[in-house]
Write a structure and sequence with these properties.
It is a single chain. This protein starts with 13 loop residues before the first strand and ends in a 24-residue tail after the last helix. It has nine helices and ten strands. Helix 1 packs parallel to helix 2, helix 4 crosses helix 5 and helix 7 runs parallel beside helix 8. The protein folds into two domains: 144 residues, 2-Layer Sandwich (Nucleotidyltransferase, domain 5); 170 residues, 2-Layer Sandwich (Nucleotidyltransferase, domain 5), CATH 3.30.420.40. It binds 5'-O-[(R)-(carboxyoxy)(hydroxy)phosphoryl]adenosine and zinc ion.
């Protein structure tokens, strides 16, 4: 393990971030907290299977990781010897995929004798708000984070960079799954979330009414919605086989409207319960135009201070991993080589390094 204080006076801090938790292989370089390169290799192979196939994802990461890291370093215009530390996603995610990034990061850290820093994927989504590109309005602590991705739906109170408290979470499907599974029922390819968003632009959000689940407190449930959509479409297509084709825009808009309302209802409750009116969204679904619009309206009408990530930092990327790496590097929170990635990992502190 490299010895601690690696911060050299008057020298810029370069962090290489590596993300490989699901189906995107990503690498980014940050110089003193600012992104100087951010590269992602997407895996189109999963489209034909209607979802991510873990075994294929791991193999594609193996193929992509060296070229993606090379590209990120090239674009940053730096040499390996300039790097101050390597940050990588330690979980949660697909274990085989995580292992590719972890093994690569460990080898590089060992070869260069620089610190290795394991990063929680969802913390990275939340702390992406602290990437200091050109914006000066970073969220003030404490704030509420709505983490919405393919694997997560949580409302989290963020007290500082390293202190996260889960206030509520989904009891079944994640919101990204609700989008993707609804899209699959309508015959759309994976991932269907962005497609529903796209079709929704030309549809009437009130054309079809889907009931919202009744879940106590700040928890969520999305599996009932998926079933309701399935039964509704089975009934309609029996009467008219072209029903989905003819109503794709209205269906997409109505599904999106229902999901966004579920999220907004819980956020309002969280604000009322905590008295915190600073809201940040994080994760792939924060790219959704419906939730972005609803939050901007809430900002105007309800005196909320809303933080919406830049588009390139919403879906999986390595800049978000590198920013947490930078924040941990400044505190000397390095990891040992026996760190093993985990498919499931709490957002709350589980080790002294979290
Ligand atoms: O954070 P992310 O890239 O990967 C995970 O960590 O899960 O999130 C991926 C999820 C997928 O479910 C995808 O359909 C959804 O984000 N997504 C969207 C949009 N863009 C991505 N869902 C709705 N509208 C979008 N525009
Ligand atoms: Zn993600």
């Amino acid at each position: 393990m490299p010895e601690k204080s690696k911060i050299k006076n008057n020298k810029s801090i370069y962090i290489l971030g590596i993300e490989s938790s699901c189906d995107d292989t990503a690498a980014a370089v940050l110089k003193d907290g600012k992104v100087i390169s951010n590269k992602v290799a997407n895996q189109a192979i999963h489209e034909q299977y209607g979802g991510v196939v873990p075994e294929l994802a791991s193999r594609a990461h193996q193929q992509n990781i060296v070229p993606v890291v090379d590209l990120a370093l090239q674009e940053a215009g730096i040499h390996l010897s300039d790097l101050s530390a390597i940050a990588f996603t330690k979980g949660p995610g697909l274990l085989g995929s995580l292992l590719v990034g972890a093994s690569f990061a460990k080898s590089m850290s060992l070869a260069l004798d620089i610190p290795l820093i394991g990063i929680h994927h969802m913390k990275a989504h939340v702390l992406a708000h602290f990437i200091e590109d050109d914006k000066m309005n970073l969220p003030e602590f404490p704030f509420l984070a709505l983490t919405i991705s393919g694997g997560h739906t949580q409302i989290v109170q963020v007290n500082n960079h390293f202190d996260f408290k889960i206030l509520g979470e989904t009891l079944d499907d994640a919101v990204g799954e609700a989008f993707d599974k609804s899209a699959k029922i309508m015959g759309l390819p994976y991932p269907g979330g962005p497609l529903i968003d796209q079709y929704a632009q030309n549809g009437n959000p009130k054309a079809f009414k889907f009931t919202k689940p009744k879940v106590q407190g700040l928890n969520f449930s999305f599996s009932g919605l998926k079933t309701a959509i399935l039964y509704f479409l089975q009934k309609q297509t029996k009467a008219n086989p072209d029903f989905i084709q003819e109503n794709l825009a209205d269906l997409s808009a109505s599904i999106q409207y229902t999901i966004v309302n579920i999220l907004m209802d819980k956020l309002k409750l969280a604000v009322a319960q905590t008295g915190i009116n600073r809201i940040a969204i994080a994760g792939g679904v924060s790219a959704n135009s419906g939730i972005r619009k609803a939050l901007r309206e809430a900002q105007k009408q309800m005196d909320w201070v809303v933080f919406i990530p830049k588009f390139e930092y919403t879906t999986d990327n390595a800049a978000m991993v590198a920013i947490v790496g930078y924040l941990k590097f400044l505190k000397g929170l390095y990891d040992d080589y026996d760190l093993i990635p985990k498919a499931r990992l709490s957002l709350e502190k589980t080790t002294k390094n979290d």
